[in-house]
Amino acid sequence: MNRNSNGLSIQIGLQMGLQMIYKSLRPVNMTDFNICYRNDISFQTLKRSTAAYQFVCWAVVTTVFLILLPIAAAASGKIEIVIGQAPISHPNAQEKALEDAFRNAIEKAVGVQVSSETLVKNAQVLVDEIYTYSEGFIERYEITNETTHADLFQIEVKAWVQEGRLNKALFLNGLDVSKIYSWIGEPRVLILIQEYIDNELSPIQLTQTELENTFLEKEISIIDQEQLKSLKQRDRELAFNDPNLAVALGQRLGAEIVLSGKCISRFSREIAIGQFKMIFYSTNIQIRAYNTSNGEILLSTNYENDNKVDTSAMGKFDAATNSIKSTINSSKNDILFQIVRKWYDVFTKPASYQIIVKNIDYTQLVRLKTELYKLEGVQKIFERSFMNRLAQLEIRYEGFQGQLENAIVSSDLPYSISGKEQNRIILDPVK
User: Fold this and answer.
1) Angstrom distance (rounded) from CA 176 to CA 71
2) Which of these, 50, 60, 56, lies nearest to 25 by C-alpha position?
3) With 255 labelled, which of 66, 167, 299, 415 sits at a CA distance of 20 to 30 A?
4) What is the 8-class DSSP label of residue 399?
5) What is the DSSP string of 301-321?
6) Is 111 helix (H, G, I), strand (E, B) or coil?
7) For residues 250 and 246, what is the distance between their CA atoms, to the nearest angstrom?
8) CA distance 127 to 209
9) Is 311 exposed, middle or buried (0-12, 13-18, 19+ CB in 10 A)?
10) Which pLDDT belongs to residue 177?
């Protein structure tokens, strides 16, 4: 992607304008007839207004083009020189260090913009605020240096950061979705969508297939069809209205997110055109997503088919299929975007992490707590227990567990990480 958010928005706007012109120049056809029918517009009135509509389209697009062209020419990215690091013992140390460098570059580039717009409460721009309010993404990068220091692998990167708000267009077309997905812990998604045509279970289940393909194209891990075979059909149907069942099914198959839903397509009407009958169906997709760790609802929304799109056919099944295709194609990217953003919000909320420290006396423990408070993102530290030179702390931290681990490793603390699991880190004194 060789343009920033302004350039992308302009490109999209001009493409839409050109498409508008193209559509305005075509003759009135059957689609126009269907639009007239839906909106009770006289067909002759539509024909008479065509010339005026064409003129307006030309005027609007020409004006937009002349206004935005200088802005497009001025659009450019921001270059940042940053350092990323990771424990040298990590099996993918270079990759982890590169991810750290990317985060630093984005924070550095976008942080200045956020501060200048007084969107933060203090000089320190928090990671979650950066990603929530003013996103950046790496257009390209060059590795300028690699070194090892003590037990750390360090990498120097020259990064071209594109600045601008993270919206669906940037996220789905420009931003490295797989990188964001990696940052938020690569949650596995169980997709359970039941599709109905005229109250009967659809034989094609197109909605499920399209959503699965959309997630896989963005390298999102989903529960595959072989694993889904273990679920009873009745459980799939009931999961949408039973959050507890949806969460239980997700936990059984090892998913962090359950995306359940219904796609309902029903006969709408038919229009006689000569000796032919054109059949129309209406489609509604209902989506709910759950966090299987606590049953929290991540997303609850509906999508309707666009009445401006002609999905009619001469047969009922074809008309229903066309309507379903149109509805899922117009909504699938938004569903993906909403799921990833909601999980990002969950993942970046202040969380509690248990820190187990071995072979430590109480004087050392007091010093350790003082030093831990100096780490960026640490809000509070609670001493839960201390016995037989074993201390248990609880840290309230703004950020991912991986960020806390990197902060500990990168500090001057005389402790190393000897073990870890979800929300738990074990420290041993450095020998």
Assistant:
1) 25
2) 50
3) 167
4) S
5) EEEE--TTS---BSSHHHHHH
6) helix
7) 6
8) 35
9) buried
10) 65
How confident is the model at residue 141, as a pLDDT?
Answer: 82
What does the block give as tokens for 86? 């990771």
The DSSP H or E segment spanning 378 is: strand 378-387
Q: Given the structure tokens 């190393």, which residue do they identify? A: 416
Low-confidence ranges of the chain (pLDDT < 50): 1-76, 111-136, 164-170, 173-175
User: How many residues are listed for the chain in this entry?
Assistant: 431
Do 350 and 423 form a contact (C-beta atoms < 8 A)? no
In 285-361, alpha helices (H): 316-348
78 closest CA partner among 145, 5, 25, 153: 5
Phi-psi region of 334 (alpha: psi -120 to 50; beta: other; left: phi over 0): alpha
Q: Indicate the pTM of the whole model.
A: 0.51
Find out whether 305 and 321 touch, Cβ atoms under 8 Å: no
CA gap 237, 303 in Å, rounded: 19
**Strands of 62-185, DSSP E:** 78-87, 136-149, 152-163
Please answer whether residues 246 and 181 qualify as being in contact, where contact means their C-beta atoms are separated by less than 8 angstroms: no
Q: Give, as one character, the DSSP assignment of residue 222.
A: B
- Are the C-beta atoms of residues 101 and 84 closer than 8 Å to each other? yes
Which DSSP helix (H) or strand (E) runs through 120? Answer: none
Pairing of strands 136-149, 152-163: antiparallel
Q: How far apart are the first and last CA of the chain?
A: 48
SS3 410: helix
Nearest CA to 131 out of 169, 100, 165, 83 is that of 165
List pLDDT tens digits, range 182-232. 767 788 999 999 999 999 999 989 999 999 999 998 888 999 888 888 888
- Count of CB atoms situated within 10 Å of the CB of 91: 6
Closest CA to 209 of 358, 355, 298, 328: 328
